[in-house]
Amino acid sequence: MNDFSDAFWAALRLLADLDPDLLEIVALSLSVSLSATGIAALIGLPLGAAVALIRFPGRRAITIFLNAMMGLPPVVVGLVVYMMLSRAGPLGELGLLFTPTAMVIAQCILITPIVAALTRQTVSDLNEEYEEHLRSLGADTTQRIATLLWDGRFRLLTAVLAGFGRAVAEVGAVLIVGGNIQHSTRVMTTTIALETSKGNLAFALGLGLVLVTVAASVNATVTVITDAASRRYG
Amino acid sequence: MRQAGATVESLRRRERGDGTRPPHPLLPLTVRGLGFWAGERWILKDVSFHLPDATRTVILGPNGAGKSVLLRLCHGLLRPGTGTISWGGLTPQNAASGQALVAQRPVLLRRSVKGNILHALKVRHLPRAQRAERVRATLALAGLEHLKDRPARTLSGGEQQRVTLARAWALRPNVLMLDEPTSSLDPGATRGVEELIRAVDAAGTKIIMTTHDISQGRRLANDVLFLHQGRLIEHAPAGEFFAAPSAPAAAQFIRGELPF
Ligand SMILES: Nc1ncnc2c1ncn2[C@@H]1O[C@H](COP(=O)(O)OP(=O)(O)OP(=O)(O)O)[C@@H](O)[C@H]1O
Ligand SMILES: [Mg+2]
Question: Any chain B CB within 8 A of the CB of A133?
């Protein structure tokens, strides 16, 4: 246990000193996952709303597909993106493999279904409740969508946060497509895995503390938003 | 709805100097052979009636008689299985923009009381410049000023019902349909709503409402449609209906003896 407490104190030191190596990794982690979340929101929010509101053939199949994709194993996503981006792959020309861009792509694929599926659920629940009222008013499609998105704004925000939480904590996909290259594609999760296996517990633990804090704050924010919204708007 | 009485006069402006009313754009309402089929049974069957005047029509009938379904069909929210509905020549879908419905179960948006009314005005394309004044006047008329910034869905059942009524009247419809508008109101609020309904009627608006409260029916109805088990059993002027209903089921209903 001595080993552990030594490592723990050393980890706190690294954090207190704002160790540049550690900060670099945290910064890359956040920027990759935030970019992936931003893109996933741009695709997932309209996609989810469209699937909820627009009747078209195959709508049920898409719903089932999105829900199934919510549980995609990150390593498999990593593998598929790797094959697409590798030299021999269809997108090999772009030379994106082992870059942060590749990591953003992989995380984006991982979490877009989450954002879309949660959005679809939120918008369709709300629509069921509001439909007759909106039809009674004679709302057109744009007014309907605007009303539902605005009234669902808090739940939609939590859908996006859930996506971010999953992105920042996953290790398999970024490890495969990023390659865990020092000063280039190391993020918190992959570095923790690597440093732990090398026996550098202090560094791993320092990053672990940051990661736990980020993940816990995301979940705390979700809870606070959900509570406040239901208290305020019922 | 405390101040409803005070504003009756201002609403009366729409009446002409000689006391006659201008022609109503959505009347007469003519319903012929209306039937509504849900899954395995007829909810409404062979309902026909003709409402020529902008008076207060009250739909009476026991639970499950089909009152709400009839209102929703007339408002174009449901499509008839058989028969036709004509609002002065218009289909329910085309007539709906001149109507407002206060549903039996209040549907309130996740916004403030004011926000709910504003939203309805926006969707119905009331020019921006007129919205604030309309909201203010509506809140005053409905006695809801002190609640205007409260999230609508946190209000009590009775308060919510008054908000939905205010929101409907804010649209200044030609036809106001109310589905049991006072079912969760206390006696004072009920009286307020009844005054408001009279004021809205005096402004030339056609009122079609349902109620379970027979004395409310007596107070408000000009004519009564009595529905029972999906059929229109009787359509009569209120005086005749309450004095001597011709259908046995209607007589039993008025005496509170209709078994279910
Ligand atoms: N969309 C629907 N699909 C199937 N059945 C329906 C539908 N809407 C209503 N019903 C049924 O039609 C019948 C009449 O319903 P309706 O709501 O019109 O009754 P009501 O006269 O308004 O009753 P209450 O006085 O309880 O409000 C009920 O038996 C109800 O179960
Ligand atoms: Mg009803």
Answer: yes
